[in-house]
Amino acid sequence: MASVGLGRSGVVVQETDDVLVIGAGIAGLSVAAALSETCRVTVLERETSPGNHASGRAAALFRRLHPQPTVRLLTEASLPFLSDRHEEVDGAPLVNFRGLLLLARGDQMDLLDRVERDPRASGILQRLDASALARLVPQLRPGYAASALLEDDACDINVPRLMTLFRRRLAARAGRLVCGAGVSALRYQGGAWLAETGAGVFRAPVLVNAAGAWADGLARLAGITPIGLTARRRTLLEVRLAGAERLRSLPMIADLDLHFYFKPEAGRFLISPADETPARPGNALPEDLDVTLCLDRIRACFDFDILETRRVWAGLRSYAPDGMPVLGFDAAHPGFYWLAGQGAAGIQTAPSVAGLAAAEITGAALPPELDGLSGQRNALLPGRFAEASPFS
Fold first, then answer.
1. Are the CB atoms for 46 and 231 separated by under 8 Å?
2. Distances (CA, A) of 226 to 19, 215, 382
3. 208: β partners
4. Mind listing the pLDDT tens digit for each residue in 22-42?
5. What confidence category does residue 5 fall into, taking pLDDT thresholds of 50, 70 and 90?
6. For the residues 71-76, what does the mean pLDDT come to?
7. Where are the beta strands (DSSP E) in 126-170?
8. In angstroms, rounded to a whole number, what is the distance separating the alpha carbons of residues 255 and 295?
């Protein structure tokens, strides 16, 4: 059990003994669940419930194709966990086959050829001509797409179920999730990190910075140089469509230049302009222009009727300057572990990233599925960045 004592200012300090995790999105909950197998862990979340921002607002798809080999390795290493059936969520699947179709108009054929010839796409993408494309998606407007690339084994990820799994696993191992606990001050004292929050002061020798778009701000609170994260806004609409039953089995469909996407998901239909507008950390709100662009692009591509826009929202993704995740101990500050900058791959890599982080924090051996990471590990370390810009 956690012990309680008085800090230097007389406030109650709750001793967590081993690890504090800041942020209860998919990154924070997954690493906390992994750590809780051998450590006493407390997760601190500023909101009143977990997953309120990026993790709870994503239309997640597991896809193998990624330009960075390190992220591809982390993705592949996560697939066994995501494909397994876990008793904490009644053995229900975490992924379901969906497929991803990348459309190419006539003016995008050079780009399609380059993508198809890329060695990283070998064995992943299948090319469809216009006639095959029309058979697969008869709802496409005639003449819109000249060809397409199909990633047939791309899968929907059930994010709520995945979050529930990590949360239940944490609770079953006596880990704690404390919501309404935004960190107002952070300092290293007596061999441990002290985090002052609205829910009390928490103390542990290791602190995991899984604060998403707020990760640089948390580092500044601790007197640590930020890494230069940029938060980017992504707009999503849930729409009601005529003839919905005929559309539920379609793959996720995206423009090759990522100007829009359409995704059937759990009985809903999601569309997006695939925007990535730089934004400050906060409660992301959609902008009218992005909503209008999204609807215009979808109507130009598909011959179906949008009967109603049921919901519009936006979420934030956070990116490091080189677009790669940031994962590892800060070399200049003991016990401060970065888990940030996951960008668009954070959900599909969460199991393997959590396993890697937990092994490094506890000194355990790496999981066998991550054996191939040793030669690429430096590409993820926080020390690869020079002093960052003050804007993030």
1. no
2. 21, 8, 9
3. 21, 337
4. 999 999 999 999 999 999 999
5. very low
6. 93
7. 126-129, 147-151, 155-157
8. 14
In a domain, 248, yes or no: yes
Which CATH number is 199's domain given? 3.50.50.60
126 DSSP β-pair partners = 150
Q: Is residue 86 part of a domain?
A: no
328's CB contacts (< 8 A; 6+ apart) are 337, 338, 360, 380, 381, 382, 383
**Helices and strands per DSSP (H, E), number in the chain:** 8, 23
Q: In the listed set 319, 336, 358, which residue is the last one of a domain according to the structure?
A: 319
Q: Are residues 148 and 252 in the same domain?
A: yes
Number of structural domains, the chain?
Answer: 2
Spatial contact of 176 and 41, defined as CB atoms under 8 Å apart: yes
Amino acid at 26: I
The percent of residues in the chain predicted with pLDDT above 70, rounded, is 93
Task: Please name the residues in contact with 10: beta carbons below 8 A apart, sequence gap of 6 or more.
Answer: none
Return the pLDDT at 68: 87
Cα–Cα nearest to 157, from 221, 81, 90: 81
